[in-house]
Amino acid sequence: MHAPRARHARAFASIALLCFAGGLAAAALPAALAPPPVTAAGLFGPPVLDLVLGPEGKVDGFLARPNLAPGDRASGTLRLSSASPLPRAAYDLDVAVGGNISVAYHFQPPLDLALHVARLSYGRDDLLSSRDGGRDALRELDTNRDGNLTLRELRGGIRDLPPPLAARDGGTPFAIELVFRPPPDADGATYRGQRLTITFTFRLADSLDTDLLPEAAHP
Amino acid sequence: MNTKILLSIATLGIASASLGYGTYAFFSDTEKSQGNLFTSGDLDLTLNGLNGVTATILGTNFAPGDTTSGTLTLRNEGSIFTGDAQGHVVDLDLKGVVEVTDDLGNVADIDDGGVSAQPLSKYLTITALSYDGSSLLGSIGDADGDGRNNTLADLAAKGPIKDLADPGAAGKALAMTVLFATDGPNHLKRDVAQLDLSFFLSQAGEADLA
């Protein structure tokens, strides 16, 4: 008579233990996968996730060029750094590229189609080539497969770069060079009078976190 | 009773599992670089303040020995010019095309040899052609090889005069004086020669006017 009740009780006990253990495991899992906490001056705490862009006072507008004519180039470098050293495997960096364009005439193709990325590097990695084992943003983002990466295509964003070095180690440079290269059939009026403002958004996050979505790059 | 206790523990376990899974959040930090501004410039050539000028040098009722003169003021009213803050270099090409109509109404481009062996354009001599005060006559000469120098036919045969200086916003003058040669034959009566001058303003390094 009591045998089935006893079996039920044992089953419930097993389920309860499993759920409890599962709860503990779920709570403990991120902590287990998270990077080891950083200690400083004897304090124990989570790593300081603080991304800093430099050079100070030159972050906005680091890449600019007025009065563009075909063949003109513009280049700039930002120095990214983390407030404290971060384990390479535990964190990553996403870069989103957005922009606002005002055309002078409604029939004009937007300027970002004629701005080509001539150089793109992060630290020692040439992001336009995988020759040295680095990322190949050209292959990833060259949507029309013409072998050139335009600023429009770069708006797809670059994800999962390693975290920058700590400020005390000099940080990691992010360098970009654009060249204004209208297509051969463009005449003098095709792009003239346009105004393009580019925004670079850098997001440093736990590598388990959701990436900075490409949608963020398209205001 | 035991069953109730066990059910409670199970509920607690499920709740703690949900709590453990649902409350975890990742840290991140986002920074932006804004105001990276690009503006495209332009080249805008005007002649006498207009985009396109016609009939500025006229010789009507022209007879051998007559002269006529005209001046065009060229301006680059665009934002891209030689010496701008971005270091651009702009140059100008000039090309003349002559069309001759004889008194029978036959029309031919001088490049095709004209309507006769001695079209009017071979007897219209450019006695002065200067740009910004510098003579361009030395670059014309006897381009068509007929033994007569600096005629409208020579100017057409010469092809473009290339790489003249950017007129800039202040402008530069192109001045021309044409003389109807005194040895012009009688068959040139009532003939018409029309000179079209084309100017091509471009960045230095750009393909020149063909």
Short description:
Chain A is an alpha+beta fold. Helices cover 18% and strands 32% of the residues of chain A.
What does this protein structure show overall?
By secondary structure, chain A is α+β, with helices and mostly antiparallel strands. Chain A contains three helices and eleven strands, in the order αββββββββααβββ. Chain A has helices at residues 3-33, 137-141, 151-154; strands spanning 38-40, 43-45, 51-54, 65-68, 73-82, 91-102, 115-122, 125-126, 158-161, 172-180, 195-206. In chain A, strands 3-5-10-7-8 form a five-stranded antiparallel sheet. In chain A, strands 9-6-11 form a three-stranded antiparallel sheet, with no helix packed on it. The model of chain A is unreliable at 23-41 and 215-219 (pLDDT under 50). Chain B has 210 residues and is mainly beta. Chain B is 13% helix and 37% strand. In chain B, strand 4 (90-101) and strand 5 (107-109) form a beta hairpin. Chain B is elongated, with a radius of gyration of 36 Å. The termini of chain B are far apart. The model of chain B has no long low-confidence stretch (mean pLDDT 84). Strand 11 of chain A pairs antiparallel with strand 1 of chain B.
List keywords for this structure.
heterodimer, A: 219 residues, alpha+beta, 5-stranded antiparallel beta sheet, 11 strands, 32% strand, B: 210 residues, mainly beta, 4-stranded antiparallel beta sheet, 2 helices, 10 strands, 13% helix, 37% strand, elongated
The strand count of chain A comes to 11
Query: Looking at the chains present, what oligomeric state does this protein adopt?
Result: heterodimer
Strand content of chain A: 25-35%
If you average the pLDDT of chain A, what whole number results?
Answer: 80
Query: Treating each run of at least 4 consecutive H or I residues as one helix, how many helices of chain B?
Result: 2
By secondary-structure content and strand pairing, the structural class of chain B works out as mainly beta
Secondary-structure class of chain A:
alpha+beta
* Mean of all residue-level pLDDT scores of chain B: 84
Order of helices and strands of chain A: HEEEEEEEEHHEEE
Main β-sheet of chain B: number of strands, strand sense, barrel status? Answer: 5 strands, antiparallel
Largest beta-sheet characterization of chain A: 5 strands, antiparallel
Radius of gyration of chain B: 36 Å
The secondary-structure element order of chain B is HEEEEEEEHEEE
Q: Taking Cα atoms only, what radius of gyration of chain A do you get, to the nearest Å? A: 25 Å
What amount of the residues of chain B lies in strands? 35-45%
